[in-house]
Design a protein that fits this description.
The chain is α/β, with parallel strands linked by helices. Helices cover 23% and strands 30% of the residues. Bound molecules: glutamine (GLN).
């Protein structure tokens, strides 16, 4: 590529719980200045944020205990580019179905998600998904006790659905969410797409 690519985007990964290390690895490999975020003041030092997979009810409790929930909510509402995978998607949903008692989300995405939507008989599975916005070939998607988006508002773009129509990737303004885990497959196109979003937000 010709010209100066400019400074690396500073991309935080919420590191309270879950598979944040895998995201840090992928983002670093793509040339981002990737760093863990655990404290509210770290939010002002980043250009974008990834919320990893893990357990959304635990992430919710820890983010409130560490005083991060409010600042996160403000950052997302203020336009910070954010990408949530699996539990991260649940954290970004305005409405959460089948949460534990008292479970809250940060919100930002005008969607309803159902936790553990595939039930016990199908806790984890892999499939190839067409994501037209990312081109060919499709993405190999790994679902682990995954949620699905059961309802999406009018300003939400559906990026991918399963063959049965269930929505598993969405985007709305500064927020991107997938029910699956691209950080474990070696295909970094979704992270690249997010980094492009971070760059465009400048
Ligand atoms: N089932 C988890 C939750 O409710 C999400 C699983 C995942 O992130 N892989 O938060």
């Amino acid at each position: 590529m010709a010209g100066n690519p400019g400074p690396s985007p500073r991309v935080g990964v919420l590191a309270l719980q879950g598979d944040f290390r895998e995201h840090l690895r992928v983002l670093t490999a793509l040339g981002a200045d990737a760093r863990s975020v655990r404290r509210p003041e770290e939010l002002s030092e980043i250009d974008g944020l990834v919320i990893p997979g893990g357990e959304s009810s635990v992430m919710d409790k820890l983010s409130r205990a560490f005083g991060l929930a409010g600042p996160l909510r403000e950052a997302v509402a203020g336009g910070l580019p954010v990408y949530g995978t699996c539990a991260g998607l649940i954290m970004l949903a305005d409405r959460v179905l089948d949460g534990i008692e008292g479970q809250q989300s940060i919100g930002g995405l005008d969607v309803s998600v159902r936790r553990n939507a595939f039930g016990n008989q199908l806790e984890s599975f892999e499939t190839d998904l067409a994501i037209p916005r990312l081109g060919e070939p499709g993405i190999h998607a790994v679902f682990i006790r995954a949620p699905v988006v059961v309802e999406a508002g009018p300003d939400v773009d559906v990026l991918a659905s399963l063959d049965d129509g269930r929505i598993v990737a969405v985007e709305s303004r500064n927020v991107l969410g997938t029910a699956f885990h691209p950080e474990v497959t070696g295909d970094s196109r979704i992270h690249s797409y997010f980094l492009q979003k971070v760059a465009n937000a400048h």
